[in-house]
Amino acid sequence: MPLVVMCGYPCSGKTRRVEELKAHFEETTGRQVHTVGDGALGVDRNTVYADSQKEKDARASLKAAVERKVNKDNIVILDSLNYIKGYRYELFCLTKHAQTPHCLVYCLTSGEDSSAWNRDREAAEQYSQDIFDALVQRFEAPDSRNRWDSPLFTVLKDDTLPLEAISDALFKRKAPPPNQSTQSQPLSSTNFLYELDKMTQDVLMAIFNAQKTSVPGDRISVPGATEKVELTRSVNMAELRKLRRQFISYSKMHPTENTGQIANMFVQYLNKSLH
Questions:
Q1: Is the pLDDT of residue 227 over 50?
Q2: pLDDT, mean over the chain
Q3: Where are the beta strands (DSSP E) in the chain?
Q4: β-sheet bridge partners, residue 7
């Protein structure tokens, strides 16, 4: 049955998303779900990714493991970096040959976030900084215009995984309807989503901190925006996060080419929603 290809920087949350997918598929389909990844192969990441031939051999082993498990009954999830577009094309050809659908789940994070998560790991599980930096530099972001990267589901660190849309893409053998996960972004999808995530988070933190010394009715300045947030009452972080998620969902459906306006747009959205 179908193949789900994970993709993203080192330490970008791929394995956590794999666990969510696996639990969902087992609960809703009753099918056996196989996870193929570096861990199962006993890959020493700092040794393998420092040597181009060893890395090539590791990719070949992962591909072979996927090929052995792809059949009419099983679901296969490939939990690895999958950062080379040529390799993703090979996986696409594999599923085409097996006459089974596939999709790509892209865990989009900033290099700073992933690096911090890497440092938080146990020493034995960490990438060395040199290897981490090299992998980030070599990373080839997926593009939904390429048939081997489509259907593409781009997921930010705080997003809810679009489980139903992914299931539809795999089991109904058709592309999911345009939504926040699959719609192509203008110019640079990676840049747009990163700026959207970062700017809205900065605005939230500015509001939260400003409320410690302000009173209802004050106009709060936030980073990146010329407009100010007008609070007529105290707003807790849970409500702010909910509004941020709603704004991000809307913005993915209606992206702007001018990322410099994201903060102002978010402030306008907050002012309308909180009044």
A1: yes
A2: 88
A3: 3-8, 33-37, 75-79, 102-108, 152-156, 219-220, 229-230
A4: 106
